[in-house]
């Protein structure tokens, strides 16, 4: 089998000898090449190869279940080349060790068994901790939905929006089933995302304001800035920390933009509607308003419900709300890696 999987590499050290070992916790084994076995046992590659031929010709082990190809980068002259190299699992390594009558084989087996046991135990503990943490966060998110559902500001249309949010959220949880990553951890995201300039944001809101006033659905107070609230908010979203973006992905910028405009009240009136409009405008500018099938990522009713959910939420639940929005915007893994969807 040929694989690109990034199996962890650990270092086996015996006296002055060091060997890189591929660790495979899922199959409870480790993998070495012929050259690595020759280094481990202090024998040349030809001797190791002869023992390998005997292991398989005598039907001591099966080739298919004990050999795996990994793509590794090797330095060949002045260039680096990727090659598919055969690796042999712990059963084969032990068999060769017995045949060369090398005490290193016993010490290596003891070391490998201990390392595998440690990784299995630690991995289970970490997965359990992540699952429990995300289960608590999921419960907090659902508690916010239940609380907001009882709000007098919730009409029938917004109620339908909540059903849409909860349904999509539950589907995400059921589909991912990632105990090691967890539902509410930040999803794989699309790096970058261009925020609107202050002038662009003002122009977008002015267009919305004119349209609403013409319909009799807003007054001159709508989207009127309070001090430098909007400018500070956009500057905060565009800041860097030690040279790295504080909000490095499209999802992170979009979620925080929606949250901050709703919660920080940078306008005299219409903060929720302004937040929703700037959120949609940002997604549109970054070609993320529609999904791969041409449907809007969050429809207008669902977006209205989402802004209400943010407005009703306790500031202590900010991270929960942000991660909820990011998961709703999460894109397929293939697109993140640059492949066609």
From TrEMBL:
Domain Fido: 200-327
PROSITE patterns assigned: FIDO
InterPro entries recorded: Fido, Fido-like_dom_sf, Type_II_TA_Toxin, Virulence_RhuM-like
Top-level taxonomic group: Bacteria
Record protein name field: Fic/DOC family protein
